[in-house]
Amino acid sequence: MSDPQNEAALKRNGLTISKREDVAVTHVALRRGMQAELEKRASAALGVSLPATARVAEASGKLVVWAGPEQWLIIEPRSTGKDPSVDLAEALKGAASIIDVSDSRVIFRVEGQKATEVLAPSMAIDFHDQVFKRGDVAITHASHLGVMVWRLPDGSGYEFACARTYAVAFSEWLADACGKLTRPA
Amino acid sequence: MRIRCPHCGERALDEFTYLGDASVTRPDPTSPDAAGEFYAYAYERRNIAGPTQELWYHQAGCHSWLVVTRDTRTHEISDVKLAEDVASKRIKSTAGAA
């Protein structure tokens, strides 16, 4: 992989690996004692409940990703100029701490029929579709790089969130993992 | 050895960091024998052959502190709780006793 920053989409083993620069990422963290208030206001602001367990929730173009106990990432298409964390900070004021992490996290997507088969041997979590179901999230590591991974709710593949500092290393790992030899069809 | 994190499910040992004995509680620094109690808290540890309570940190996962009940002879893990639940229960029980 010559320059992963500038490579639009890579193909490996029939999988498409892409980096999603079209999205804004906002981190939401519950303030102590404000759980009921946050649940109520977040549902109104996002149109969906914040997942209490390691799941993603979909709401009109937005993806709400469980990011550890009492924390979430909101991933949504980047609109022209406007920072979505500003509206969210207003809506959830006092109940949660809101940070725009678009510059600190990078989202990668792997799509394709063989995504599970190819990724499963590369990471230490159980990728079996009865264990890691559509919409499930795992916070783990990939070859010592801290990542979050979730199975896309439509079953088309996976998304990964990693720190931007490690984006080059991670994308090279991802391309390598997706390029591993698979069993002949 | 694998640990079943209450938030994340079963994960491999390389995601966790070991801290130490979870059965001891920090002494009250204002007690008359604070020096003696802190000496015992820091140094006088038992080397148990059997079930122990240990603190583990899910460093590469959800960043939760866990209290793991592990048998040192077999490595069998019989219980994993969130450390914050264990601590708040302990605070409640001491408050109730006082």
From TrEMBL, chain A:
It holds the Pfam family SoxG. Transmembrane segments: none annotated. It comes from the Bacteria. Gene3D superfamilies: Heterotetrameric sarcosine oxidase, Probable tRNA modification gtpase trme, domain 1. InterPro entries: SoxG, TrmE/GcvT-like. This is Sarcosine oxidase subunit gamma. The lineage of its organism: Bacteria, Pseudomonadati, Pseudomonadota, Alphaproteobacteria, Hyphomicrobiales.
From TrEMBL, chain B:
InterPro entries: SoxD, SoxD_sf. It holds the Pfam family SoxD. One of its GO terms (biological process) is tetrahydrofolate metabolic process. One of its GO terms (molecular function) is sarcosine oxidase activity. This is Sarcosine oxidase subunit delta heterotetrameric.
